[in-house]
Give the backbone structure.
Amino acid sequence: MSASSIALSAASTTATPPAVPEIPATGLVTKWRAALRLDRVALRVLALILCVALWQAASVHHLDLGVLTFRFVPAPTEVAAAAWALFQSPKLSAHVTNSLIRVFAGFGVAALLGIALGLVIGRSRRLEDALLPPLEVLRPIPGVAWIPLAILMFPSSELSMIFITFMGALFPVLLNTIHGVEAIDRRLVASSRSLGAGRWSVFAEVVLPGALPSIVTGLAIGMGTSWFCLVTAEMIAGQYGIGYYTWESYTLQNYADIVVGMLFIGAFGMASSGLIKLVGRLLMPWHRIQERHT
Amino acid sequence: MTTFGTQKAGRIELRDIAIHLPGKQRFEAVRNIGTTIAGGEFVSIIGPSGCGKSTLLNAVAGYLKPSSGRLHVDGEAVSGPGSDRGMVFQHHSLLPWRTALDNVAFGLKMSGVGRRERRARAEEFLRLVGLAEFSDRYPAQLSGGMQQRVEIARVLINNPRVVLMDEPFGALDAQTRERMQQLLLEIWGRLQPTVLFVTHDIDEALVLSDRVLVMTHRPGRIREEILVDLRRPRPEDITVSPDFIALKKRCLALVQDEVRQSLVGGLEAARIELPVEA
Protein backbone atom coordinates (compact mmCIF):
# COMPACT_ATOMS: atom_id res chain seq x y z
CA MET A 1 0.00 0.00 0.00
CA SER A 2 2.64 2.49 1.04
CA ALA A 3 4.86 1.54 -1.88
CA SER A 4 2.08 2.03 -4.39
CA SER A 5 1.04 5.38 -2.92
CA ILE A 6 4.60 6.63 -3.20
CA ALA A 7 4.71 5.51 -6.78
CA LEU A 8 1.39 7.20 -7.44
CA SER A 9 2.53 10.53 -6.06
CA ALA A 10 5.74 10.25 -8.04
CA ALA A 11 3.73 9.64 -11.18
CA SER A 12 1.48 12.61 -10.52
CA THR A 13 4.39 15.03 -10.07
CA THR A 14 5.70 14.13 -13.50
CA ALA A 15 2.23 14.37 -14.99
CA THR A 16 1.90 18.10 -14.26
CA PRO A 17 2.48 19.68 -17.66
CA PRO A 18 5.63 21.78 -17.84
CA ALA A 19 5.69 24.81 -20.08
CA VAL A 20 8.27 23.11 -22.27
CA PRO A 21 7.60 19.71 -23.80
CA GLU A 22 9.27 16.41 -22.95
CA ILE A 23 8.39 15.30 -19.46
CA PRO A 24 11.63 14.68 -17.63
CA ALA A 25 11.27 11.19 -16.19
CA THR A 26 14.05 10.08 -13.94
CA GLY A 27 15.17 6.47 -14.05
CA LEU A 28 13.78 5.82 -10.59
CA VAL A 29 10.32 7.07 -11.49
CA THR A 30 10.26 4.94 -14.62
CA LYS A 31 11.14 1.90 -12.56
CA TRP A 32 8.40 2.65 -10.07
CA ARG A 33 5.94 3.02 -12.84
CA ALA A 34 6.97 -0.27 -14.43
CA ALA A 35 6.70 -2.04 -11.09
CA LEU A 36 3.27 -0.53 -10.51
CA ARG A 37 2.10 -1.62 -13.93
CA LEU A 38 3.36 -5.17 -13.39
CA ASP A 39 1.62 -5.20 -10.03
CA ARG A 40 -1.67 -4.31 -11.62
CA VAL A 41 -1.34 -6.86 -14.40
CA ALA A 42 -0.66 -9.57 -11.83
CA LEU A 43 -3.73 -8.52 -9.83
CA ARG A 44 -5.93 -8.59 -12.89
CA VAL A 45 -4.79 -12.08 -13.90
CA LEU A 46 -5.27 -13.26 -10.36
CA ALA A 47 -8.83 -11.89 -10.27
CA LEU A 48 -9.66 -13.65 -13.51
CA ILE A 49 -8.29 -16.98 -12.24
CA LEU A 50 -10.21 -16.59 -8.99
CA CYS A 51 -13.49 -16.04 -10.85
CA VAL A 52 -13.01 -19.15 -12.97
CA ALA A 53 -12.12 -21.16 -9.86
CA LEU A 54 -15.26 -20.00 -8.05
CA TRP A 55 -17.34 -20.85 -11.09
CA GLN A 56 -15.76 -24.31 -11.25
CA ALA A 57 -16.50 -24.94 -7.56
CA ALA A 58 -20.08 -23.68 -7.87
CA SER A 59 -20.82 -25.89 -10.88
CA VAL A 60 -19.17 -29.02 -9.56
CA HIS A 61 -21.02 -28.77 -6.25
CA HIS A 62 -24.31 -27.76 -7.93
CA LEU A 63 -24.45 -24.69 -5.77
CA ASP A 64 -28.07 -23.70 -5.11
CA LEU A 65 -28.70 -20.24 -3.70
CA GLY A 66 -32.47 -20.43 -3.97
CA VAL A 67 -33.04 -17.67 -6.50
CA LEU A 68 -29.91 -18.62 -8.39
CA THR A 69 -28.84 -22.16 -9.11
CA PHE A 70 -25.71 -23.53 -10.72
CA ARG A 71 -27.30 -26.97 -11.20
CA PHE A 72 -27.40 -26.68 -15.01
CA VAL A 73 -24.43 -24.38 -15.44
CA PRO A 74 -21.57 -26.23 -17.11
CA ALA A 75 -18.23 -26.14 -15.33
CA PRO A 76 -15.24 -24.36 -16.94
CA THR A 77 -13.65 -27.73 -17.65
CA GLU A 78 -16.72 -28.83 -19.62
CA VAL A 79 -16.72 -25.53 -21.46
CA ALA A 80 -13.07 -25.96 -22.36
CA ALA A 81 -13.82 -29.42 -23.73
CA ALA A 82 -16.73 -28.05 -25.76
CA ALA A 83 -14.56 -25.23 -27.08
CA TRP A 84 -11.93 -27.73 -28.13
CA ALA A 85 -14.59 -29.74 -29.94
CA LEU A 86 -15.78 -26.62 -31.75
CA PHE A 87 -12.23 -25.78 -32.78
CA GLN A 88 -11.96 -29.25 -34.30
CA SER A 89 -15.27 -28.90 -36.07
CA PRO A 90 -15.34 -27.94 -39.77
CA LYS A 91 -18.39 -25.77 -39.02
CA LEU A 92 -16.36 -23.28 -36.99
CA SER A 93 -15.13 -21.22 -39.93
CA ALA A 94 -18.66 -21.06 -41.37
CA HIS A 95 -20.02 -19.85 -38.03
CA VAL A 96 -17.32 -17.22 -37.67
CA THR A 97 -17.38 -15.89 -41.23
CA ASN A 98 -21.17 -15.63 -41.31
CA SER A 99 -21.19 -13.68 -38.06
CA LEU A 100 -18.31 -11.46 -39.10
CA ILE A 101 -20.03 -10.57 -42.36
CA ARG A 102 -23.29 -9.72 -40.58
CA VAL A 103 -21.65 -7.66 -37.87
CA PHE A 104 -19.37 -5.76 -40.20
CA ALA A 105 -22.10 -5.12 -42.77
CA GLY A 106 -24.48 -3.78 -40.12
CA PHE A 107 -21.73 -1.89 -38.35
CA GLY A 108 -20.35 -0.47 -41.59
CA VAL A 109 -23.67 0.98 -42.68
CA ALA A 110 -24.31 2.27 -39.15
CA ALA A 111 -20.90 3.92 -39.05
CA LEU A 112 -21.37 5.71 -42.39
CA LEU A 113 -24.92 6.80 -41.65
CA GLY A 114 -24.25 7.63 -38.00
CA ILE A 115 -21.23 9.81 -38.76
CA ALA A 116 -22.90 11.56 -41.69
CA LEU A 117 -26.13 12.24 -39.79
CA GLY A 118 -24.21 13.21 -36.66
CA LEU A 119 -22.11 15.76 -38.54
CA VAL A 120 -25.08 17.51 -40.13
CA ILE A 121 -27.21 17.36 -36.99
CA GLY A 122 -24.32 18.74 -34.95
CA ARG A 123 -23.81 21.62 -37.34
CA SER A 124 -27.37 22.68 -38.01
CA ARG A 125 -29.99 23.42 -35.41
CA ARG A 126 -32.74 23.13 -37.99
CA LEU A 127 -31.66 19.64 -39.04
CA GLU A 128 -31.31 18.70 -35.40
CA ASP A 129 -34.93 19.70 -34.80
CA ALA A 130 -36.07 17.79 -37.87
CA LEU A 131 -34.06 14.59 -37.45
CA LEU A 132 -33.35 14.04 -33.80
CA PRO A 133 -36.88 13.59 -32.37
CA PRO A 134 -37.79 10.59 -34.55
CA LEU A 135 -34.37 9.07 -33.89
CA GLU A 136 -34.76 9.57 -30.16
CA VAL A 137 -38.03 7.63 -30.27
CA LEU A 138 -36.32 4.68 -31.97
CA ARG A 139 -33.28 4.72 -29.72
CA PRO A 140 -34.61 2.90 -26.62
CA ILE A 141 -36.12 0.05 -28.66
CA PRO A 142 -33.93 -3.03 -28.09
CA GLY A 143 -32.78 -5.22 -30.96
CA VAL A 144 -34.99 -8.14 -29.96
CA ALA A 145 -38.11 -5.97 -30.31
CA TRP A 146 -37.17 -5.33 -33.92
CA ILE A 147 -37.21 -9.02 -34.90
CA PRO A 148 -40.80 -9.34 -36.12
CA LEU A 149 -40.72 -6.08 -38.01
CA ALA A 150 -37.27 -6.80 -39.42
CA ILE A 151 -38.56 -10.06 -40.83
CA LEU A 152 -41.52 -8.27 -42.39
CA MET A 153 -39.51 -5.37 -43.76
CA PHE A 154 -36.67 -7.15 -45.51
CA PRO A 155 -36.83 -9.60 -48.39
CA SER A 156 -34.25 -11.98 -46.96
CA SER A 157 -33.50 -13.15 -43.45
CA GLU A 158 -29.86 -12.24 -44.07
CA LEU A 159 -30.81 -8.59 -44.51
CA SER A 160 -33.05 -8.66 -41.44
CA MET A 161 -30.13 -9.92 -39.37
CA ILE A 162 -27.82 -7.24 -40.72
CA PHE A 163 -30.50 -4.68 -39.92
CA ILE A 164 -30.51 -5.72 -36.27
CA THR A 165 -26.74 -5.42 -35.90
CA PHE A 166 -27.07 -2.08 -37.69
CA MET A 167 -29.61 -0.82 -35.15
CA GLY A 168 -27.25 -1.85 -32.38
CA ALA A 169 -24.37 0.25 -33.69
CA LEU A 170 -26.24 3.26 -35.09
CA PHE A 171 -27.05 5.19 -31.92
CA PRO A 172 -23.71 5.07 -30.16
CA VAL A 173 -22.04 6.32 -33.35
CA LEU A 174 -24.68 8.96 -34.02
CA LEU A 175 -24.86 10.41 -30.52
CA ASN A 176 -21.10 10.49 -30.03
CA THR A 177 -20.63 12.22 -33.37
CA ILE A 178 -23.22 14.87 -32.50
CA HIS A 179 -21.59 15.39 -29.14
CA GLY A 180 -18.15 15.68 -30.73
CA VAL A 181 -19.31 18.29 -33.24
CA GLU A 182 -21.15 20.35 -30.66
CA ALA A 183 -18.17 20.36 -28.30
CA ILE A 184 -15.85 22.00 -30.85
CA ASP A 185 -14.42 25.33 -29.72
CA ARG A 186 -16.27 27.97 -31.73
CA ARG A 187 -13.17 30.13 -31.82
CA LEU A 188 -11.49 27.48 -33.96
CA VAL A 189 -14.23 27.90 -36.54
CA ALA A 190 -14.12 31.70 -36.27
CA SER A 191 -10.36 31.98 -36.68
CA SER A 192 -10.27 29.53 -39.59
CA ARG A 193 -12.82 31.65 -41.37
CA SER A 194 -10.61 34.67 -40.77
CA LEU A 195 -7.79 32.73 -42.39
CA GLY A 196 -9.84 32.24 -45.53
CA ALA A 197 -11.57 28.92 -44.89
CA GLY A 198 -14.89 28.53 -46.68
CA ARG A 199 -17.85 26.41 -45.63
CA TRP A 200 -16.42 23.15 -46.91
CA SER A 201 -12.92 23.78 -45.54
CA VAL A 202 -14.31 24.56 -42.10
CA PHE A 203 -16.04 21.20 -42.27
CA ALA A 204 -13.03 19.21 -43.47
CA GLU A 205 -10.31 21.03 -41.54
CA VAL A 206 -12.03 21.91 -38.29
CA VAL A 207 -15.32 20.08 -37.67
CA LEU A 208 -14.33 16.59 -38.77
CA PRO A 209 -10.93 16.38 -37.06
CA GLY A 210 -12.37 18.17 -34.02
CA ALA A 211 -15.10 15.57 -33.65
CA LEU A 212 -12.84 12.62 -34.48
CA PRO A 213 -11.91 11.56 -30.92
CA SER A 214 -15.59 11.42 -30.04
CA ILE A 215 -16.43 9.61 -33.28
CA VAL A 216 -13.81 6.94 -32.58
CA THR A 217 -15.27 6.43 -29.10
CA GLY A 218 -18.71 6.07 -30.67
CA LEU A 219 -17.41 3.55 -33.20
CA ALA A 220 -15.73 1.47 -30.49
CA ILE A 221 -18.92 1.40 -28.42
CA GLY A 222 -21.05 0.75 -31.52
CA MET A 223 -18.83 -2.15 -32.48
CA GLY A 224 -19.46 -3.68 -29.07
CA THR A 225 -23.22 -3.22 -29.22
CA SER A 226 -23.25 -4.63 -32.72
CA TRP A 227 -21.81 -7.91 -31.44
CA PHE A 228 -24.18 -7.63 -28.54
CA CYS A 229 -27.11 -7.75 -30.96
CA LEU A 230 -25.69 -10.68 -32.90
CA VAL A 231 -27.40 -13.43 -30.91
CA THR A 232 -30.66 -11.53 -31.21
CA ALA A 233 -30.15 -11.16 -34.95
CA GLU A 234 -29.20 -14.78 -35.52
CA MET A 235 -32.26 -15.98 -33.61
CA ILE A 236 -34.17 -15.00 -36.76
CA ALA A 237 -32.86 -17.73 -38.97
CA GLY A 238 -29.84 -19.35 -40.34
CA GLN A 239 -27.71 -22.37 -40.11
CA TYR A 240 -24.49 -20.65 -39.30
CA GLY A 241 -23.22 -17.90 -37.09
CA ILE A 242 -21.89 -17.72 -33.56
CA GLY A 243 -25.12 -16.26 -32.25
CA TYR A 244 -27.10 -18.95 -34.03
CA TYR A 245 -24.76 -21.59 -32.59
CA THR A 246 -25.38 -20.23 -29.09
CA TRP A 247 -29.15 -20.19 -29.51
CA GLU A 248 -29.21 -23.64 -31.13
CA SER A 249 -27.13 -25.04 -28.27
CA TYR A 250 -29.78 -23.87 -25.87
CA THR A 251 -32.61 -25.48 -27.80
CA LEU A 252 -30.56 -28.69 -28.07
CA GLN A 253 -29.66 -28.47 -24.37
CA ASN A 254 -25.90 -28.45 -25.06
CA TYR A 255 -25.25 -26.21 -22.12
CA ALA A 256 -21.47 -26.15 -22.41
CA ASP A 257 -21.77 -24.98 -26.01
CA ILE A 258 -23.90 -22.02 -24.92
CA VAL A 259 -21.05 -20.74 -22.82
CA VAL A 260 -18.56 -21.35 -25.63
CA GLY A 261 -20.73 -19.25 -27.93
CA MET A 262 -21.01 -16.52 -25.33
CA LEU A 263 -17.28 -16.40 -24.81
CA PHE A 264 -16.67 -16.29 -28.57
CA ILE A 265 -18.95 -13.31 -28.93
CA GLY A 266 -17.27 -11.56 -26.02
CA ALA A 267 -13.80 -12.19 -27.42
CA PHE A 268 -14.69 -11.06 -30.94
CA GLY A 269 -16.48 -7.98 -29.67
CA MET A 270 -13.55 -7.00 -27.51
CA ALA A 271 -11.04 -7.60 -30.30
CA SER A 272 -12.96 -5.53 -32.85
CA SER A 273 -13.48 -2.66 -30.42
CA GLY A 274 -9.78 -2.76 -29.61
CA LEU A 275 -8.97 -2.67 -33.31
CA ILE A 276 -11.03 0.48 -33.74
CA LYS A 277 -9.35 2.18 -30.81
CA LEU A 278 -5.96 1.25 -32.24
CA VAL A 279 -6.81 2.70 -35.65
CA GLY A 280 -8.11 5.80 -33.89
CA ARG A 281 -4.85 6.24 -32.04
CA LEU A 282 -2.89 5.95 -35.25
CA LEU A 283 -5.16 8.50 -36.93
CA MET A 284 -4.85 11.02 -34.10
CA PRO A 285 -1.26 11.32 -32.88
CA TRP A 286 -2.09 14.82 -31.61
CA HIS A 287 -4.87 13.57 -29.39
CA ARG A 288 -2.66 11.69 -26.95
CA ILE A 289 -0.21 14.59 -26.80
CA GLN A 290 -3.04 16.96 -26.01
CA GLU A 291 -4.42 14.71 -23.28
CA ARG A 292 -1.00 14.36 -21.74
CA HIS A 293 -0.51 18.12 -21.62
CA THR A 294 -3.90 19.26 -20.39
CA MET B 1 1.18 45.12 -50.25
CA THR B 2 -1.29 47.05 -52.35
CA THR B 3 -1.44 50.78 -51.87
CA PHE B 4 -4.12 53.27 -52.71
CA GLY B 5 -2.31 56.22 -54.21
CA THR B 6 0.04 57.42 -51.54
CA GLN B 7 -2.08 55.88 -48.80
CA LYS B 8 -1.36 52.44 -47.40
CA ALA B 9 -3.99 49.73 -47.55
CA GLY B 10 -5.94 48.78 -44.46
CA ARG B 11 -7.90 51.96 -43.87
CA ILE B 12 -10.81 51.28 -41.52
CA GLU B 13 -13.80 53.60 -41.52
CA LEU B 14 -16.36 53.43 -38.73
CA ARG B 15 -19.40 55.70 -39.10
CA ASP B 16 -22.06 55.89 -36.42
CA ILE B 17 -21.79 52.21 -35.54
CA ALA B 18 -24.19 50.65 -33.06
CA ILE B 19 -24.09 46.97 -32.18
CA HIS B 20 -26.77 45.05 -30.34
CA LEU B 21 -25.91 41.67 -28.91
CA PRO B 22 -28.54 38.93 -28.87
CA GLY B 23 -29.25 36.99 -25.72
CA LYS B 24 -31.87 36.70 -23.05
CA GLN B 25 -31.89 40.47 -22.85
CA ARG B 26 -30.85 41.92 -26.18
CA PHE B 27 -28.74 44.93 -25.28
CA GLU B 28 -26.75 47.67 -26.90
CA ALA B 29 -23.05 46.89 -26.59
CA VAL B 30 -21.61 49.89 -28.45
CA ARG B 31 -23.21 53.08 -29.69
CA ASN B 32 -22.34 55.91 -31.97
CA ILE B 33 -18.81 54.75 -32.78
CA GLY B 34 -17.13 56.89 -35.41
CA THR B 35 -13.49 57.11 -36.31
CA THR B 36 -11.14 56.51 -39.18
CA ILE B 37 -8.02 54.41 -38.81
CA ALA B 38 -5.38 55.08 -41.44
CA GLY B 39 -3.73 52.27 -43.36
CA GLY B 40 -0.69 51.01 -41.45
CA GLU B 41 -1.69 52.75 -38.27
CA PHE B 42 -1.37 51.05 -34.86
CA VAL B 43 -4.45 51.84 -32.77
CA SER B 44 -5.34 50.48 -29.34
CA ILE B 45 -8.72 50.44 -27.69
CA ILE B 46 -8.97 50.66 -23.90
CA GLY B 47 -11.91 51.08 -21.56
CA PRO B 48 -13.64 49.57 -18.55
CA SER B 49 -14.41 45.87 -18.81
CA GLY B 50 -17.64 45.11 -20.59
CA CYS B 51 -17.52 48.37 -22.57
CA GLY B 52 -17.72 46.59 -25.91
CA LYS B 53 -14.06 46.70 -26.99
CA SER B 54 -14.06 43.10 -28.12
CA THR B 55 -17.49 43.45 -29.64
CA LEU B 56 -16.22 46.25 -31.85
CA LEU B 57 -13.24 44.14 -32.86
CA ASN B 58 -15.51 41.20 -33.69
CA ALA B 59 -17.55 43.48 -35.94
CA VAL B 60 -14.46 44.54 -37.89
CA ALA B 61 -13.50 40.85 -38.15
CA GLY B 62 -16.95 40.18 -39.60
CA TYR B 63 -18.11 37.78 -36.89
CA LEU B 64 -21.08 39.97 -36.07
CA LYS B 65 -23.03 42.61 -37.92
CA PRO B 66 -23.54 46.15 -36.63
CA SER B 67 -27.21 46.97 -36.20
CA SER B 68 -26.60 50.34 -37.79
CA GLY B 69 -23.84 52.46 -39.23
CA ARG B 70 -21.14 52.03 -41.87
CA LEU B 71 -18.16 49.76 -41.43
CA HIS B 72 -15.76 49.89 -44.36
CA VAL B 73 -12.23 48.58 -44.93
CA ASP B 74 -10.52 50.26 -47.87
CA GLY B 75 -13.89 51.50 -49.08
CA GLU B 76 -15.52 48.07 -49.03
CA ALA B 77 -18.30 47.18 -46.61
CA VAL B 78 -17.39 44.33 -44.25
CA SER B 79 -19.77 41.47 -44.91
CA GLY B 80 -18.13 38.55 -43.10
CA PRO B 81 -14.78 37.14 -41.98
CA GLY B 82 -11.98 37.15 -44.53
CA SER B 83 -8.27 36.56 -44.78
CA ASP B 84 -7.63 40.28 -45.35
CA ARG B 85 -8.48 40.81 -41.68
CA GLY B 86 -6.60 38.46 -39.38
CA MET B 87 -7.74 37.86 -35.81
CA VAL B 88 -5.65 36.97 -32.75
CA PHE B 89 -7.53 36.01 -29.59
CA GLN B 90 -6.32 36.09 -26.00
CA HIS B 91 -6.02 32.31 -26.00
CA HIS B 92 -4.67 30.70 -29.10
CA SER B 93 -7.10 29.14 -31.53
CA LEU B 94 -4.58 26.97 -33.34
CA LEU B 95 -5.85 23.68 -34.73
CA PRO B 96 -4.78 21.07 -32.15
CA TRP B 97 -4.41 18.40 -34.86
CA ARG B 98 -1.97 20.38 -36.96
CA THR B 99 1.71 20.95 -36.22
CA ALA B 100 2.99 24.49 -35.77
CA LEU B 101 4.16 24.49 -39.37
CA ASP B 102 0.86 23.27 -40.79
CA ASN B 103 -1.04 25.74 -38.62
CA VAL B 104 1.00 28.60 -40.06
CA ALA B 105 0.56 27.22 -43.57
CA PHE B 106 -3.21 26.92 -43.10
CA GLY B 107 -4.11 30.25 -44.70
CA LEU B 108 -2.01 29.50 -47.78
CA LYS B 109 -3.66 26.09 -48.06
CA MET B 110 -7.03 27.84 -48.04
CA SER B 111 -5.97 30.09 -50.88
CA GLY B 112 -4.79 27.13 -52.91
CA VAL B 113 -1.01 27.45 -52.63
CA GLY B 114 0.78 24.15 -53.33
CA ARG B 115 2.08 22.05 -50.48
CA ARG B 116 5.78 22.58 -51.02
CA GLU B 117 5.56 26.33 -51.45
CA ARG B 118 3.28 26.88 -48.50
CA ARG B 119 5.51 24.84 -46.21
CA ALA B 120 8.56 26.80 -47.31
CA ARG B 121 6.82 30.09 -46.63
CA ALA B 122 5.42 28.85 -43.33
CA GLU B 123 8.97 28.02 -42.24
CA GLU B 124 9.97 31.56 -43.12
CA PHE B 125 7.21 32.97 -40.92
CA LEU B 126 8.03 30.62 -38.07
CA ARG B 127 11.58 31.93 -38.28
CA LEU B 128 10.20 35.48 -38.19
CA VAL B 129 8.64 34.76 -34.79
CA GLY B 130 11.68 32.82 -33.61
CA LEU B 131 10.18 29.33 -33.68
CA ALA B 132 11.99 27.75 -36.62
CA GLU B 133 13.02 24.69 -34.62
CA PHE B 134 9.51 24.05 -33.30
CA SER B 135 7.82 23.47 -36.63
CA ASP B 136 6.96 19.82 -35.91
CA ARG B 137 5.43 20.45 -32.51
CA TYR B 138 1.71 20.27 -31.93
CA PRO B 139 0.14 23.31 -30.19
CA ALA B 140 -0.25 21.37 -26.94
CA GLN B 141 3.52 20.90 -26.88
CA LEU B 142 4.21 24.65 -26.92
CA SER B 143 4.19 27.17 -24.07
CA GLY B 144 1.58 29.94 -23.98
CA GLY B 145 3.96 32.52 -25.44
CA MET B 146 5.01 30.18 -28.23
CA GLN B 147 1.39 29.42 -29.06
CA GLN B 148 0.67 33.13 -29.45
CA ARG B 149 3.73 33.55 -31.65
CA VAL B 150 2.53 30.73 -33.91
CA GLU B 151 -0.89 32.37 -33.94
CA ILE B 152 0.63 35.68 -35.03
CA ALA B 153 2.73 34.02 -37.73
CA ARG B 154 -0.36 32.20 -38.96
CA VAL B 155 -2.24 35.49 -39.34
CA LEU B 156 0.65 37.39 -40.93
CA ILE B 157 1.40 34.79 -43.60
CA ASN B 158 -1.87 35.80 -45.28
CA ASN B 159 -0.48 39.31 -45.69
CA PRO B 160 -3.58 40.84 -44.12
CA ARG B 161 -4.34 44.54 -44.52
CA VAL B 162 -5.67 44.59 -40.98
CA VAL B 163 -4.59 42.62 -37.92
CA LEU B 164 -7.15 42.51 -35.11
CA MET B 165 -5.81 41.59 -31.68
CA ASP B 166 -8.06 40.93 -28.70
CA GLU B 167 -5.86 41.12 -25.59
CA PRO B 168 -3.39 38.82 -27.32
CA PHE B 169 -0.83 38.96 -24.52
CA GLY B 170 -3.30 39.13 -21.65
CA ALA B 171 -2.70 35.56 -20.53
CA LEU B 172 1.11 35.74 -20.63
CA ASP B 173 3.48 36.47 -17.76
CA ALA B 174 4.99 39.97 -17.59
CA GLN B 175 8.37 39.09 -19.09
CA THR B 176 6.96 37.11 -21.98
CA ARG B 177 4.45 39.88 -22.60
CA GLU B 178 7.19 42.49 -22.98
CA ARG B 179 9.14 40.30 -25.36
CA MET B 180 5.99 39.72 -27.39
CA GLN B 181 5.30 43.45 -27.55
CA GLN B 182 8.78 44.09 -28.93
CA LEU B 183 8.37 41.27 -31.43
CA LEU B 184 5.02 42.63 -32.53
CA LEU B 185 6.44 46.13 -33.05
CA GLU B 186 9.33 44.72 -35.04
CA ILE B 187 7.03 42.74 -37.31
CA TRP B 188 4.58 45.61 -37.64
CA GLY B 189 7.45 47.89 -38.67
CA ARG B 190 8.46 45.45 -41.34
CA LEU B 191 5.08 44.43 -42.79
CA GLN B 192 3.09 47.58 -42.00
CA PRO B 193 -0.42 46.19 -41.56
CA THR B 194 -3.05 48.24 -39.78
CA VAL B 195 -3.29 46.95 -36.22
CA LEU B 196 -6.38 47.31 -34.06
CA PHE B 197 -5.39 46.20 -30.58
CA VAL B 198 -7.74 45.69 -27.63
CA THR B 199 -6.17 45.70 -24.18
CA HIS B 200 -6.93 46.64 -20.61
CA ASP B 201 -3.26 47.45 -19.97
CA ILE B 202 -2.65 51.19 -20.43
CA ASP B 203 1.15 50.77 -20.53
CA GLU B 204 0.81 48.22 -23.28
CA ALA B 205 -1.48 50.48 -25.29
CA LEU B 206 0.89 53.45 -25.00
CA VAL B 207 4.08 51.49 -25.73
CA LEU B 208 2.63 50.03 -28.89
CA SER B 209 0.24 52.51 -30.45
CA ASP B 210 0.12 55.61 -32.60
CA ARG B 211 -3.27 56.38 -31.14
CA VAL B 212 -5.36 55.15 -28.21
CA LEU B 213 -9.15 55.13 -28.26
CA VAL B 214 -10.62 55.36 -24.76
CA MET B 215 -14.14 53.97 -24.60
CA THR B 216 -16.90 54.80 -22.19
CA HIS B 217 -18.77 52.30 -20.06
CA ARG B 218 -21.61 50.41 -21.70
CA PRO B 219 -22.98 51.11 -24.20
CA GLY B 220 -19.45 51.86 -25.32
CA ARG B 221 -18.79 55.08 -27.16
CA ILE B 222 -15.45 56.66 -27.95
CA ARG B 223 -14.81 59.06 -25.11
CA GLU B 224 -11.49 60.40 -26.30
CA GLU B 225 -8.80 59.73 -28.87
CA ILE B 226 -5.31 60.14 -27.50
CA LEU B 227 -2.49 60.70 -29.93
CA VAL B 228 0.68 58.94 -28.74
CA ASP B 229 3.32 61.18 -30.32
CA LEU B 230 6.29 59.32 -28.90
CA ARG B 231 9.22 58.81 -31.23
CA ARG B 232 9.78 55.32 -32.70
CA PRO B 233 11.58 53.05 -32.14
CA ARG B 234 10.60 53.42 -28.53
CA PRO B 235 13.31 52.45 -26.04
CA GLU B 236 12.57 49.98 -23.26
CA ASP B 237 12.69 52.65 -20.56
CA ILE B 238 10.09 54.78 -22.33
CA THR B 239 7.58 53.84 -19.64
CA VAL B 240 9.44 56.12 -17.18
CA SER B 241 9.84 59.11 -19.50
CA PRO B 242 7.88 62.24 -18.51
CA ASP B 243 5.94 62.36 -21.80
CA PHE B 244 4.85 58.76 -21.36
CA ILE B 245 3.82 59.31 -17.76
CA ALA B 246 1.79 62.36 -18.72
CA LEU B 247 -0.08 60.33 -21.34
CA LYS B 248 -0.56 57.51 -18.90
CA LYS B 249 -2.05 59.84 -16.30
CA ARG B 250 -4.53 61.10 -18.82
CA CYS B 251 -5.60 57.62 -19.87
CA LEU B 252 -5.80 56.44 -16.30
CA ALA B 253 -7.99 59.36 -15.28
CA LEU B 254 -10.37 58.72 -18.17
CA VAL B 255 -10.62 54.98 -17.59
CA GLN B 256 -11.07 55.36 -13.85
CA ASP B 257 -13.78 57.93 -14.37
CA GLU B 258 -15.59 55.52 -16.68
CA VAL B 259 -15.24 52.65 -14.24
CA ARG B 260 -16.68 54.86 -11.51
CA GLN B 261 -19.61 55.88 -13.67
CA SER B 262 -20.32 52.32 -14.68
CA LEU B 263 -20.39 51.32 -11.01
CA VAL B 264 -22.74 54.15 -10.08
CA GLY B 265 -25.13 53.76 -12.98
CA GLY B 266 -24.60 50.08 -13.46
CA LEU B 267 -25.94 48.18 -10.50
CA GLU B 268 -28.65 46.71 -12.66
CA ALA B 269 -26.40 46.60 -15.70
CA ALA B 270 -23.96 44.47 -13.73
CA ARG B 271 -26.58 41.77 -13.52
CA ILE B 272 -26.62 41.40 -17.28
CA GLU B 273 -24.38 38.51 -18.23
CA LEU B 274 -21.41 39.58 -20.32
CA PRO B 275 -21.56 37.96 -23.72
CA VAL B 276 -19.01 35.28 -24.55
CA GLU B 277 -16.76 36.63 -27.24
CA ALA B 278 -16.93 35.28 -30.80
